């Protein structure tokens, strides 16, 4: 499938009438296959991004190509192999399902107003190709929605770079709005809380609830990245909504890479500590991930499950991401409606008679 022709799970551009507003969901990206050969170019693009690793290029390039890309692809491919599905990478499958569901929800709430497309920051389909596809489909306005609830320069900031690069190539770029984050959106907190409560109703409640967020180097926070504040705010709001205290709901940071200090406490050390302190059943949720992926399905649900057991715990239970659950679809649709306000077909809420959803 040529990536320049892919406009999203809703189908080819000629299958739908033109829409004046394009909604571009962007997720991180994932390799095309769980093989070292497919993982290498993906990691090469990801780890060459100066937003992700900010070392001087003359220093970093030889390390990346001479060391990292010789070793890591095989290790990562093995990890991807443990979670791969017949449909492909969970991150891709889940992101496409979410995009299709968001298209359907927007069609219901603002018929014909918007077309949804999905891009990946690394790998395919790239941001530039999807911006161009939306423009070919009639979009004179573009709302970019990175699938990261918390802003980080390493994730959201890098998506903004890719959009800026794509715009440089267009003679007549669309009007642009970008969602920075949705870490404290009440509908997002409510969706997370209900999914955890529903999970508890089905499986019983563990001794502790751990919220594990993706880490970043501590240095980035000292330089002004708001990511840590936003993770803590999400955790505080969720803790209040669930009625838990600081012992019952803890926060940690996963996926550390390299030797620098990253945000702490680290997730692996935390699950071991909790096992040592006598927790038998540990529930773990990852509210920083809109869609399940390697970092949740393999690192948490497999690797950290094993760490917890080896440290004397009984069961680590991973509570799935929101994925394409109706509550997340409705929350993201609400976010789109608020950010697109004033654009054609997006009259202020209340003004679009008959287009409101039933409460
Ligand atoms: C090396 C630096 C990295 C930073 C900084 C970083 C920040 C960051 N990442 C995500 C979300 C995801 N990361 C994923 C995988 C992944 N992350 C890194 C490195 C950094 N991430 C690597 C090398 C990898 C690849 C896998 C591996 O080799 O271990 C994923 C999953 C991708 C998938 O295919 O499933 C996500 C999602 C965020 C939100 C973030 C900053 C806040
Ligand atoms: Fe086509
Ligand atoms: Fe990452």
TrEMBL record:
One matching Pfam family: Ferrochelatase
HAMAP family listed in its UniProt record: Ferrochelatase
Organism: Fulvimonas soli
Matching SUPFAM superfamilies: Chelatase (SSF53800)
Protein name as it appears in the record: Ferrochelatase
Gene Ontology MF terms in the entry: ferrochelatase activity; metal ion binding
Entry-linked PROSITE patterns: FERROCHELATASE
Record NCBIfam families: hemH
Pathway of action: Porphyrin-containing compound metabolism; protoheme biosynthesis; protoheme from protoporphyrin-IX: step 1/1
Biological process per Gene Ontology, one example term: heme biosynthetic process
Family matches, as InterPro entries: Ferrochelatase, Ferrochelatase_AS, Ferrochelatase_C, Ferrochelatase_N
Region (Disordered): 1-20
UniProt similarity note: Belongs to the ferrochelatase family.
Record GO cellular component, one term: cytoplasm
CDD domains, sorted: Ferrochelatase_C, Ferrochelatase_N
């Amino acid at each position: 499938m040529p990536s320049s022709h892919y406009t999203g799970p809703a189908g080819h551009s000629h299958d739908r009438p033109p829409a004046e507003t394009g909604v571009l969901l962007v997720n991180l990206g994932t390799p095309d296959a769980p093989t070292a050969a497919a993982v290498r170019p993906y990691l090469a693009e990801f780890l060459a991004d100066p937003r992700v690793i900010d070392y001087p290029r003359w220093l970093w390039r030889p390390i990346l190509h001479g060391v990292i890309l010789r070793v890591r692809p095989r290790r990562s491919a093995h990890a991807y192999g443990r979670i791969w599905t017949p449909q492909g990478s969970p991150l891709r499958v889940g992101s496409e399902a979410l995009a299709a569901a968001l298209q359907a929800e927007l069609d219901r709430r603002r018929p014909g107003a918007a077309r949804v497309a999905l891009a990946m920051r690394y790998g395919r389909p790239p941001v530039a190709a999807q911006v161009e596809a939306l423009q070919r489909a009639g979009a004179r306005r573009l709302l970019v929605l990175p699938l990261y609830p918390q802003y980080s320069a390493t994730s959201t900031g890098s998506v903004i770079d890719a959009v800026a690069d794509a715009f440089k190539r267009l003679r007549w770029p669309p009007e642009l709005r970008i969602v920075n984050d949705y870490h404290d959106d009440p509908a997002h907190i409510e969706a997370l809380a209900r999914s955890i409560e529903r999970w508890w109703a089905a499986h019983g409640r563990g001794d502790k609830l751990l919220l594990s967020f993706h880490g970043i180097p501590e240095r980035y926070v000292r330089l002004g990245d708001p990511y840590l504040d936003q993770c803590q705010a999400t955790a505080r709001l969720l803790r209040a909504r669930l009625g838990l205290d600081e012992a019952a709901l803890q926060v940690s940071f996963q996926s550390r890479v390299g030797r620098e200090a990253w945000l702490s406490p680290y997730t692996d050390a935390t699950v071991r500590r909790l096992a040592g302190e006598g927790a038998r059943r540990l529930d773990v949720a990852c509210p920083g991930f809109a869609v399940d992926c390697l970092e949740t399905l393999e690192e948490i649900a497999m690797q950290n499950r094993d760490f917890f057991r080896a440290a004397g715990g009984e069961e680590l239970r991973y509570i799935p991401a929101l994925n394409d659950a109706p509550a997340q679809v409705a929350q993201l649709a609400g976010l789109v409606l608020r950010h697109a306000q004033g654009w054609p077909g997006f009259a202020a809420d209340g003004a679009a008679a008959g287009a409101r959803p039933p409460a």
